[in-house]
Write a structure and sequence with these properties.
- This protein is α/β, with parallel strands linked by helices.
- The chain has 2 domains: 8-31 and 313-411, Aspartate Aminotransferase, domain 1; 50-311, Aspartate Aminotransferase, domain 2 (3-Layer(aba) Sandwich), CATH 3.40.640.
- Helices cover 36% and strands 12% of the residues.
- It is built from 13 helices and 13 strands.
- The protein has a 7-stranded mixed β-sheet, with helices on both faces.
- A hairpin with a 3-residue loop joins strand 12 and strand 13 (384-387).
- Helix 2 (46-62) runs antiparallel to helix 10, helix 4 (102-113) runs parallel beside helix 5 (131-143) and helix 11 (314-335) runs parallel beside helix 13.
- It is globular.
- The two termini are 44 Å apart.
- GO terms for molecular function: kynureninase activity; pyridoxal phosphate binding.
- InterPro entries: Aminotransferase_I/II_large, Kynureninase, PyrdxlP-dep_Trfase, PyrdxlP-dep_Trfase_major, PyrdxlP-dep_Trfase_small.
- Residues 68-220 form the Aminotransferase class I/classII large domain.
- The modification N6-(pyridoxal phosphate)lysine is found at residue 237.
- Its cofactor is pyridoxal 5'-phosphate.
Length: 426
């Protein structure tokens, strides 16, 4: 018997066939809540809770000796987590380190790779990138004594949601020193072709780096093989590292040994760090890009989370993610197409990341109504609703329920009880 796409039974059948379905039991999910905001903050896993408690206990048990004793010695924790994360970004272990925040890591990488010379002084970015990246870029340009309106090239979007790679490549002129782009656009979920863009940049002698905040843990990467110069990302979205989790960065091995632009004692060669010499001896790995002492308790949950990712496999996660977003789009097109929604995300699987982007003039009100009904969405001003069915803890039945709730909100005009403006935090 062929089941109807619109029925709950169809969703339940998909769940029974899902090889990743058991991973949902690894996460804390409130009853009656459909969490569709994992591209902003991932949920807590039981494994992450265990590793956090274990590291907390190592402080309790060992005191200062926790730096070298216990199940997870603190002194080597950032490097160990970099090694665990490397398969997710397609890197060698020595090319990845867990340190800093997204923005501080971008400052570090630009301080290292943005070395403007006569005639080659500009940074190329795009107008749809997350604003914090643009703030950091502008800051670095000013630190070199330049004006941002002259030395920051922003590639424009033709539709307000997506970018054309060919237009980015056209903007790669002889004045560009560094390029900073997102791997996935944070609003629309569009995946940029990093291989194509990297090859084009290198043909013109330009350093290129990517912000992986919305792609790490959602799609496979091949940073080493395609020759990306640097990358940086947060770990609290798809990687479920917890609010304010320590971030990550990648530096291609061809650049290892280059002195980072910003130096701090934790970037030292580990065998020499406690010599405490006036002249620093940087590590010969991506560990050189660390600054101060690592935030051990903010690294701890990531250990448990990365264990789950390595068990599930990023290819299987991506396969399910595509199916989930396709299923959600099909249901939305069928159930609420008459209520003014349009898709701002790419429709094809190759270009679409781990979330969908619904556009509606009443988006803020609809998001508030969804939350009241148990669906956790993400509003993006002025009129966007992001919905992220995350592969490790979202079922097909969750997607079905989410769309049924959205339909009831529109049919019964429940959203009209709310003001159409965002809260302080959107």
């Amino acid at each position: 018997m062929t089941l109807n796409l619109l029925t709950r039974n169809y969703a339940e059948q998909l769940d029974q066939q899902d090889q990743l379905n058991s991973f949902k039991n690894e996460f804390y999910i409130r009853d009656g809540v459909y969490y569709m905001d994992g591209n902003s903050l991932g949920l807590l896993s039981k494994r992450s809770e265990q590793t956090l408690l274990s590291l907390l206990n190592s402080w309790k048990e060992h005191g200062i000796d926790g730096w070298t004793k216990g199940e997870y010695p603190w002194f080597y924790l950032s490097e160990k987590l970099g090694e665990m994360c490397a398969p997710l970004v397609g890197a060698k272990a020595e090319e990845v380190i867990m340190t800093g925040s997204t923005t501080s890591n971008l400052h570090q990488l630009l301080a290292t790779f943005y070395s403007p010379k006569e005639g080659k002084t500009k940074i190329l970015a795009d107008e749809l990138n997350f604003p914090s990246d643009l703030y950091a870029i502008q800051s670095q340009i000013r630190l070199h004594g330049f004006e941002t309106d002259e030395h920051l090239i922003l590639v424009k979007s033709e539709d307000g949601h997506t970018l054309a790679e060919d237009r980015i490549i056209e903007a790669m002129n002889d004045e560009v020193a560094v390029i900073v782009l997102p791997s996935i656009l944070y609003r629309s979920g569009q995946i940029l072709d990093m291989k194509k863009l990297t090859e084009a940049a290198h043909q013109k002698g330009i350093i290129i780096g990517f912000d992986l905040c919305h792609s790490v843990g959602a799609i496979p990467h091949s940073l080493h093989d395609i020759g990306v110069d640097f990358a940086f990302w947060c770990n609290y979205k798809h990687l479920n590292g917890g609010p304010g989790a320590v971030a990550g960065l990648f530096v291609h091995e061809k650049h290892l040994g280059k002195t980072p632009g910003l130096l701090g004692w934790f970037g030292s060669d580990k065998t020499k760090q406690f010599d405490l010499d006036i002249e620093m001896t940087p590590a010969t790995t991506a560990g050189a890009y660390q600054l101060g002492t690592p935030h051990v308790l903010s690294l701890a949950p990531l250990y448990g989370s990365l264990e789950l990712f390595n068990e599930a496999g990023i290819d299987a996660i991506r396969e399910k993610s595509i199916k989930l977003t396709n299923y959600m789009m099909e249901l939305i097109e069928t159930e609420v197409s008459d209520y003014g929604f349009t898709f701002g995300n790419p429709s094809d699987d190759v270009s679409r990341g781990g979330h969908i982007f619904l556009v509606h003039e009443e988006a803020a009100r609809i998001c508030k109504a969804l939350k009241e009904e148990g669906v956790i969405p993400d509003f993006r001003a002025p009129n966007g609703i992001r919905l992220a069915p995350v592969a490790l803890y979202t079922s097909y039945t969750d997607v079905w329920e989410t769309v049924q709730i959205l339909k009831s909100i529109m049919v019964e005009n429940k959203y009209k009880r709310f003001e159409n403006q965002r809260d302080v935090i959107a």
